[in-house]
Protein: UDP-N-acetylglucosamine 1-carboxyvinyltransferase
Organism: Desulforamulus ferrireducens
Amino acid sequence: MEKIIITGGNPLNGTIRVSGAKNAVLPILAASLLTTTETKLLDVPNLADVGVICSVLQELGAHIYKEGNELTIAVPYLASTEAPYEYVRKMRASFLVMGPLLARAGQARISLPGGCAIGTRPIDLHLKGFAALGAEIRYGAGYIEATAAELTGAKIYLDFPSVGATENIMMAAVLARGQTILENAAEEPEIVDLANFLNSMGARIKGAGTKVIRIDGVPQLTGAVHAVIPDRIEAGTYLVAAAITRGDVLVENIIIDHLKPVVAKLMEAGVCLTETDYGLRVSCNRRVRGVDIKTLPYPGFPTDMQAQMMALMSVAEGTSIITETVFENRFMHVNELKRMGARIKIEGRTAIVQGVKSLTGAEVKATDLRAGAALILAALAAEGETEVSNIYHIDRGYEHLIEKLQGIGANIKRVEECVLV
Ligand SMILES: CC(=O)N[C@H]1[C@@H](OP(=O)(O)OP(=O)(O)OC[C@H]2O[C@@H](n3ccc(=O)[nH]c3=O)[C@H](O)[C@@H]2O)O[C@H](CO)[C@@H](O)[C@@H]1O
Ligand SMILES: C=C(OP(=O)(O)O)C(=O)O
């Protein structure tokens, strides 16, 4: 088992580059199942989650070639239409192959994803969408099976703007007969990136990035070349890293528009942010002010940045109220931050963070991906040494994290944990 060791206290300085977005590349890779011809993806981050979705695709018949951050995928024929538990257990986003399989083969059998550390995360909205398009849904032995002789466009209203349901339904509808109108759709930038990729394959999707998406079904799609958008959550994490260590960092390869709610909160907290020709420069030379945060679907404050902002608020001047409205159990990092000296109280879906002057290093564990990121941020600012265990969570979503942070002056390393037998 590996762990990350950080000695805090170094202000971070220099330039850091953001990789392609995990949450954009996963559905885009799933969408490559929609055609028999070759697709080429650029700026694909080297992440554990990308490895998992590639294994799922290979199981389904995909030929995948990797060269650095480029992936070439071709699925000339489907070898299977089943995504087994082995993969879906490792990564919930494996469920995103259901829409493309249903569209291409008229059938899919996918292991039920089940809950995870941050919430129960049902998939009822995905299934409601498939059923509206004409699929028959059956449950059994831990699997969901969907079949359809033909998918037909429909008007679908999502009770909640679920990112995954919007993507899955969109991918099913691109080859359906007639028009699908998806109302109360998720508006996240990753939805727009997926729609752009699908449109470059020949799909006819309008309105992605707004609450109403219109999809006119086409008979077939062809492979395309597509560059994945930069990861806004990775970028936000580096903005906080600079602020929490009172450093001065240029974050490159960033779409500032995608980070509006994060940038606004950081500025409210007293962090200095300047747009340059090369990216976003972030500097901070004093203790930040406490600010209140409420997570919401895009364009609201992203739940995937809640834990990292909580780390920053832990050392802010004054009290911050952080409310999590997207997931019902996304405060797993609180107990770990408390081990480092943070003063946080949870009341239902709200965390009350009373800023302290400084945190101290401790042995802590990453309970999920962003919880792990928050602990690394806290450790970068803490006095002394912090050991973060369960780092496989962090490897899911941050490409070359250690090297990138070392490159801006962090004292951070990855070590193999000794196991005595
Ligand atoms: C791979 C990926 O892109 N993951 C992101 C995606 O996850 P994911 O697509 O799973 O998130 P959703 O937007 O679907 O989930 C948001 C909320 O809706 C609920 N829900 C969702 C689907 C459903 O059928 N029924 C239902 O009740 C969930 O339990 C959750 O409470 O969006 C989340 C919200 O921005 C992010 O935190 C994740 O990083
Ligand atoms: C929750 C996340 O991812 P996933 O939906 O893949 O669990 C995340 O990226 O923070």
